[in-house]
Design brief:
The structure is a single chain. The chain is an alpha+beta fold and 347 residues long. It folds into three domains: 233 residues, Jelly Rolls; 42 residues; 54 residues, Orthogonal Bundle (Arc Repressor Mutant, subunit A), CATH 1.10.10. 43% of the residues lie in helices and 21% in strands. The strands form two sheets. Strands 2-1-4-5-12-7-10 form a seven-stranded mixed sheet, with helices on both faces. It has a five-stranded antiparallel sheet with strand order 3-6-11-8-9. Helix 5 runs antiparallel to helix 6 and helix 7 crosses helix 8. The chain is elongated. The N terminus is likely disordered.
């Protein structure tokens, strides 16, 4: 942080096109109503006001939104908060800051209701949490835990949308993580649907909605955020699953002539368990033994058609991985509808 950061003047803007009713003292103390933020900012008379970073930090950052800010370079500090929706702890907010890093340190942990924050970048953003760094392009998103230290920012101005969903809404919100690089790409269908949902809320302020419609809007945000966490994880798992299945198939295609080839050999080659290998093939619709049989029968058929006139059927069967000639004949008949001798070239 630069030495004179506390003395810099900037501004904090709060957009409130449709002012919310002032919450009562119980709402204020419990902090459960999004109107509390509007209420507190109004009481502090900083709806749109020049202030030093020190003032912002003490009056807004650390005491209202439970965040701090570290400026980058010598640019004047600027911050903007634009509430879009809020109902029973579920909130949608647009935010923007000047160049720098917004962060939550140990002193800010545990000051609010435990929640997962879905951060959608509207400009490129670097996010760090739990020892991981996420590079977000405009439109990308990631999930964060508000009960753990975190940092996000850019060397230029930042703009983002945050959807806050209390973990009490869904148990998986607390424990489940995104796979892969931890980034939800902007083309994700669930993310696109969520952005569309937010655009509707932007155009129709929740304060104009009936209680029933507000409840539906709130439930939609929770369900879409939960679906996004689940679908992104499953997409990553599906990609890993397919990659391992492809590797297993390549291995058996290179070794199917070996009579002793088994799932244990495949597991050892891929560094996974035998059970996992068997599940890979079963989920593909064809077991490992069925795939091996298909490869061996195809190889035997090809050899019989090309070399069958000069070689014994039993020799061909053994060369193709069959140790039991009777079993080979039965499988061949079931697969091709005739005995192996039928396909021998005519001399």
């Amino acid at each position: 942080m630069v030495p004179n950061a506390h003395a810099k003047l900037g501004f904090c803007a709060l957009r409130t096109k449709n002012p919310a009713p002032m919450p009562n003292d119980n709402d204020y103390e419990a902090g459960k109503n999004w109107g509390v933020l509007i209420y507190r900012l109004r009481r502090l008379n900083i709806m749109l006001v020049s202030m030093t970073l020190r003032d912002w930090r003490e009056q807004i950052g650390r005491h209202i939104i439970h965040l701090d800010f570290e400026p980058h370079g010598d640019e004047p500090f600027q911050a903007e908060i634009d509430p879009v929706f809020g109902s029973d702890g579920v909130r949608v907010t647009h935010g923007a800051t000047s160049a720098g890093t917004t962060f939550r340190d140990e002193s800010l942990i545990g000051l609010g209701t435990p929640a997962r924050d879905l951060l959608i970048a509207r400009k490129p953003l670097v996010v760090c949490q739990g020892g991981r760094e996420f590079q977000l392009r405009a439109g990308d998103a990631t999930f964060m835990r508000n009960w753990l230290p975190a940092r996000s920012g850019s060397t230029s101005s930042s703009a983002y949308t945050v959807i806050v969903v209390p973990i009490a809404e869904n148990a998986e919100l607390e424990s489940r993580d995104l796979g892969g690089d931890g980034v939800i790409r902007r083309g994700n269908p669930a993310l696109q649907l969520l952005r569309s949902h937010i655009r509707v809320l932007e155009n129709k302020s929740h304060r104009r909605l009936s209680a029933a419609l507000q409840s539906v809007a709130r439930r939609g945000l929770v369900d879409l955020a939960s679906l996004l966490l689940q679908s992104e994880r499953e997409t990553v798992e599906h990609t890993i699953w397919n990659a391992r299945l492809a590797a297993a198939i390549r291995f058996i295609e290179a070794n199917y002539l070996d009579h002793s080839l088994s799932s244990a050999h495949v597991a050892a080659a891929l560094g996974i368990s035998v059970r996992y290998v068997n599940r890979l093939f079963e989920m593909s619709g064809q077991s490992l033994s069925e795939r091996l049989l298909e490869l061996r029968l195809a190889a035997a058929y090809s050899l019989i058609r090309s070399d069958g006139a000069d070689r014994r059927i039993s020799d061909i069967a053994q060369r193709c991985g069959f140790s039991d000639i009777s079993a080979f004949n039965c499988h061949f008949l079931a697969r091709f509808g005739a005995s192996p001798k039928t396909f021998r070239p005519q001399s």
